[in-house]
Each structure stands twice: as structure tokens, then as C-alpha cells.
Amino acid sequence: MPLLDVQNISRAFGSTQALRDASLQVERGEIVALMGANGAGKSTLVKILSGLYTADSGRIVWEDTDYKPQNPAEAAARGIVTVHQSTDVVGIPGLSVADVLLLNQFVDRSHPFFLSHRTVRREAARILQEAGFDLPLDRDFETLGTADRQMVAIARALSQNARLLILDEPTASLSVREAERLYEILRQLKARGIAVLYISHRTADLEALADRVVILRGGRNVGAFSRPIDFSAAIETMIGRSLESARPDQRRFGQAVLELKGIQLLPDSRPFDLTVHKGEVVAITGVLGAGKSRLLSGLFGVGSFVSGNITLNGQPFNARKPADAIAAGVVMAAEDRHTSSLIHAGWPGESIASTISLPHLNRWYRSGFMFSKREENEGNAAIKRLGIKAVDSLASVWSLSGGNQQKTVIARWEAEPSRVLLLDEPFQGVDVGARQDIIATIRSHTDRATLIATSDAEEAHEVADRVLVMDHHTLREETKHSAFTGYQEDTV
Amino acid sequence: MTNSAQHTSENPRGGNGLETVRETIRRGAVFILLIALVVGFSLAQPAFININNLMSILQAVSVVAIIGAGVTVTLAIGGFDLSVGAVAASSVMAASYAMIVLGLNAYHTVPLVLAFGALVGFANAFLIVKLKVPDLLATLSTMFLLTGLQLIPTAGRSISVGLILPDGTTATGKYDPAFLTIGRSSLFGTIPFSVLMMLLVALILFVLTERTRLGRLLYATGGNEVATRLAGANVNRIKTFAYVLSGTLAALGGIIVAARVGRGDVSSGASLLMDSVAASLIGFAVLGLRRPNVLGTLIGAVFVGVLLNGLTMLNAPYYTQDFIKGAVLVGALALTYGIGRSQN
After folding, report:
1. Residue A343 is nearest to which of B11, B211, B220, comparing CB atoms?
2. What tens digit of pLDDT does each residue of B146-174 get?
3. Are residues A198 and A58 in the same domain?
4. Is A370 at the interface with chain B, CB within 8 A?
5. Is the pLDDT of residue A176 over 70?
6. Residue A491 lies in a domain
7. Shortest Cα distance from B340 to chain A (angstroms)?
8. Pick the CATH number of B29-35+51-342 from 1.10.1060, 1.10.10, 1.25.40, 1.10.3470
9. FRET label pair with A62: which of A142, A184, A418, B130, CA 20 to 30 Å apart?
10. Rounded to a whole number, what is the distance in Å from the CA of B30 to chain A's nearest CA?
11. Minimal Cα–Cα distance from A197 to chain B, Å?
12. A417 assigned to some structural domain
């Protein structure tokens, strides 16, 4: 019997089927990599295993008994601990590393009410020693780097007697050296019989670690590879098409719309140039924190560049605030639509129509009064054009699935003509079907230049005419596969 | 995705029959209760339904409703103006000081006091927008400042005709009769001027918040400031507008109080903050909107006024008033947040 046996589980969110009969087996001391594009169902599967969601159907057997955790604490008590991608939720700024290591024990009442500083330190030192890590116990958690934070999270998981460790994109913001250190730790854990489920689609990670690769697409198992792993085949299975295939709708572009010369994002980063043409879709990929968002935000007037020249249709362009950029025809749908684009649920302005109209109120309601049905009509038109699944445009944007919410945000910036469309992580939390629709609408506009930032390399290839890689706040041309292998290179 | 799943069921559109009925009751609850109160009080005490009594209720709540409307706008932008009570109280003092000590007439006093309110709103906005002080703390400190400031010019004395100034001289001015008409005159002898002011302010602010571009941007700022800024709006200007409006309306409330009382009492306006905030919050329950709204604030103020007036007629002791207001507020908030959600 495998340690963990996930049998044909399914899970739907509204009309979106996130998992369909997905299965997964993990043996003791095995490192299994779970691969899949955004929306493939990896995170849903992980959340079911860690007790955040429950499956609609199917069965999970863990250590030979049925496993159906109701919350993360129960999952941890059974020996399955998840280390999430954003390590800042591991601890609390202001607490020492020792405190953070014992945090869950403070909470679950297994410790006495009164704790001396010495007891905490002794316990924390023991936990670190058992995990085999060396970390400064008295440092403020806030001052730790990402790799160290991950080690804190892993050490804490081990102190909870974890037999299965789930790591969600652990190397996403690590340097090569830090990643090497993590590999070493995971190999030690493997030797101790601890199983690791590893979510990543970096060939370097998989090459170094994975005993087996399981690939999800559209919520289904679409393939599994054992050592020796053919990575090109694995990536192609994940994307669902061959890497070499050219764009089906390759076309000629118009004149240069947006020209960047000598842009320097940080005082110590290398300057770069970038030109985007009319009708062209350029995607910038790269790890979290590589500077993609900084570039897009800077163009949109949020933050500024250290140096460099920008021209828009040959004219100098320098937005100091979003309103300037919008007036010049440079618009942006920022990353994380919930915080950057949508008005809270239950509040005026939460409807699909008002989500779309927000930047255009000046133009659509010149008198200042909003008596006409302009926004409602524009909303209904957008629903039809983009295939947004909604009753009508007065429905709350919060009643939509992630993909339809994103379509609404894109519709906002297509409601009025623009010269440059900037999209930051436009496929975050978007299912595959909606992603195809969004790609289609992005590519159907030949009258503007589009610049997309995405940390997901296969998304970049799906949507763009040209893919660039951002690394340490500078751009470089992409070589085949480099988007899939790229780490931050160590700066010396 | 989890978010959208949670919110779907809240969408009132397209529920089954029973749910629709329940939703209608929730939306109309405050109106139903208000009518029940009026009917009940009229049966128990026929003098209640007398037009003069009804007008006196409206007159009693007019100041609270006007100030509450300003608070509502600051709630709409996601802020909170705690200084309104102090602004109103200092406006009473300022108006009295302007006429009695400085000898100004009504046509100079009113604009001066309104400008004072606007200035305080501007100062609040400066603290909040430029210095990034959290709204509650900024307006709380302004409240303290004004509560103290209003005592200084008269060395802590109330202002009435014949006031002896700190330097020993006697003030020679008096209340302008034209000023007193603001608080004491009525249209056709029945509708008090202050009630007309209240209705006018409510109407203008209702249209402004619910039917204009600016209103949409006010709510959008409160609904997600980052998203509103990224949509190209000048969020700082919107917030400044809200606080200036709130300060000005509080000053207007103070002018009405001064014109009614005819003197500058240091303790006037003590309960105005709590009452106007309560009216705004009760307003959340009106129409089941669960958000600040001007119509709701008006209804909320009237609701409390009706309840207090009726109970007073039924000989409820005056010291129970605050308790009753508190109970209404708790009930309204429970209705707003608890009952609608329990079906999910």
C-alpha cells in the first residue's frame, strides 16, 4: 500500500470543474513532483490534502485509513503538512525565529500557559537540531530571507511529526545557491523516509529531485513520468502542445508604439531596451520578484524608474500617476484583481457594469449625473463579446468565477480604445476555458500594443508573439526552454 | 475562487419564493417597524399623531440627520469622521461669539461658521491624506482639539447677551433676529425651517451619492481605494471632498442648534456625535443595503426620534433615552449583518 493514495477525486467551484477523477500515489521516502499549468487543478488538490477544501467525490487513503481532514490543523495532526509559497504567512513580524518555530504549539495548548524565554529557546534549538538546520534563534522573523523562512516552515512541519511534506513552488523566489540548499535538505528528508509532494514546473527542480512526475491538465491526470524523466515530453504534456509549434496566427506588426530605452528599474540593475509594436503581444516571464510588476507599474505611473527614456508613438511619455497614463491611452490591469481592480462585495460599484465603467465615468457621464443606462449597456455588450457567464451586467462581479471576473477586468480596458494594454498576471486563478477566451480577445485587437507579465512560462508562450525573460530586474531574450529552467542567478 | 463561491449565495437575484419573502422583510424591516411604532404610539396616546407633535419629532432629529448625512459620506469613502460633534458644538460657540462679541449680523455669521466647518474638514483631510494618519485617529484628535478650543476665547464661559470677556469688558452684541429665524421659524406655521433644511440636505446628498459620477467614486474609494486609484481617479481629492462636506454639514447643524437655543452653551452638542453616528449605522439596515446610505441615515434619525418621543409621551423616564438608542442600534446592526447572513 502506498503511503498516500488519492483515488479519483473531483471538485467543482460553481460551474468550474477544478478536478476530475484525479489520482495520485506517494510512497514513503519518495519525492513526487506535481506539474500543471495555472488552473490545472494542482492547488485544488493540494488544498484538499491540506484540509482547506473537501473533495466532492473520490476517496483518499492515508497510512491505510480513510483521510478526510476538515481543517489544516487536522491534516497536520495526521502528518500531512503544507509549506505554502508565500512564506510571509509562516510567521509574524516582531516574533523571533524561536517563537515562530513553536507557534503552533503555543496555539494547540500542548504547552504550559506560562513559558520562560529559556524554555522556548531550548525547545526551538531542539527542533532545529532534529531538522538539521542552522538558523539564528533570536533574529526577528521579518528580517529572514525567503530561503530561511522556508527552512523555518519545514523545521516546524518536521516538529509536528510530518510524514508527508507538501511544498508549493518552493524555489520560485530562491537563488540557485539557496535552491541547492533546499535540494540537499529534501534529499535528507527522503533518506529519513519522509515523503515529499513538490509543486513546480521548473525542469531544474525536477531534474535534481523528482523520483516521479505527475502531470495534471484541466483537472485530470494526463501523464506520469518516472526516472529518467524526459522533460521536453513532460512540458509538452503539461501545455498540451509541442514546444516548437509556431503561433498559428503569426502576423506582421505595425509601427513601434511603445519604445523603452535604457530603462533601469533599480539603482544597481542593468539597463535594458524594449520595443512593442502595434498589434504585437509581448510577454515577459520570470520568477516572482524579478521586476516584471515594477516595469509595468512604472509605465502606468505607479512608482518610477531610476533612469531611461520612454516614447509612445514617437512622443515622450512619462506618466506620474495612473490618470496620466490612462489619458495617454496606456492602461493596465494589475495583478491580483481582487485588490487591484474590484470593488468589495455588497458595495456600490460591485456590479459587472460598474466594474467596467469605473475608469470611463468621465467620458460616459459628462454631465456628472448617472441617469442613463450607458454602463449597463456597455456591460451587456462585454458579456456577449467575451462570453462572460452572468445573468446580466447588473449582477455582482463577485458572483462570477475567477475566469469571468478576469474577463470583466479585461473588458474594462477594452471598453474604450487604448494604445498600450499592460496586463500583470492576467491568468491568475483563471480556468483553462476562460484563459482561451481571454487569449483570444487579447490577440484579436490589432490596433494596440500589448505587454503581459506572467511568471508562468507556458502561459507566456500561449498568448504572446514574443517572449522575453526578466531576471534581476533586467530583460533578456528567451532561449528555448530557458523560461522553464530560469532561476535568479546568484549575484556576487 | 473561494470568494466567489461565498458571494454567490448572497446575490438576492433569482432566489426561490420563500427566500424572496424573507429578503423583502429584511429590506423593509426598518420601515415596517417604523410604521408599527407610529401606529402603536397613536393608539396608546392619540396626541402622538398630532401634526405639531410629528413636526416636533422631525425638528428634534433634523440636526442629527444633517450631521449624520455628512458622517455617511465619510463612511462611504471608507473613513469615519468622529469630529462632527465637536465641530457642531464649536460652531454653536463660534456663531454666538461672532454675533455677541464681534457684533456681526446673520449674513456674515452663517458663511463664517460654514467656512469654519469646511476648514476643519480640510484639516482632517490633510491629516488623513497627506500625513497618512488613520481616519479614526485623525478625527478623534481633531475632536479633542476642538472640544478644548471652543472654551478658550471665553475662558470656559457660555456665551449669552452681556457676556463678561476674559479682559473684564462686557460684550455688546446680541443674537441677530434674522439668525434666530433659522431655528425658530416655520413654513405655513407648521413645517419648521430646520426640517426643510434637513429634507433639502438629504435630497441633495441622496442624488449626489446615488446618482452622480462623484457619488460612484466616493463609494468606489471606500470599496477599494487601490482599485479606484488604478482606474485613474484622484482618490486624495475625493477623500478631501468627503471630509470638507462632513465638516460643513456639521457646522450647519451647529448653526441650527445655535439659532434654536439663542445662546452659546459650552455643553451643547454633547450627544450629537453619538446620535449622528447611530443614525448612519442604523441606516445600514434600511432597505437591507448593509452600507452607508443617505436615505437610511435620514430614516435612522427619524426612527430614533419617533421612538424617543413616543416613549416620553408614555412617561418613560428621560434617563432611559441613551439606553433605548443603544438598543435600537444593536438591533439594527444585528438585523443588517446577522439575519441576512444566517441563511447562507
Report:
1. B220
2. 988 988 888 888 888 877 877 778 888 88
3. yes
4. yes
5. no
6. no
7. 12
8. 1.10.3470
9. A184
10. 19
11. 23
12. yes
Do residues A454 and A310 both lie within one domain? yes
Give the model's confidence band at B100: pLDDT under 50 very low, under 70 low, under 90 confident, else very high.
Answer: confident
Which of A300, A362, A396 is the best mutation test for B, with the most CBs of B within 10 A?
A: A396
Whether A335 has a pLDDT exceeding 90, the answer reads no
CATH of residue A399's domain is: 3.40.50.300
Cα–Cα distance, A176 to A182 (Å, whole number): 10
Chain B interface, best mutation among A399, A406, A410, by max B CB count within 10 A: A399
* Interchain pair B4, A399: CB under 8 A: yes
Residue A198: give the domain boundaries. Answer: 4-239
- What number is the average pLDDT over the span B179-189? 84
How many domains does the structure of chain A reveal?
Answer: 2
Q: Which residue has the cell 533518506?
A: A191
Q: Which of A368, A391, A405 sits opposite B4 (nearest CB)?
A: A405
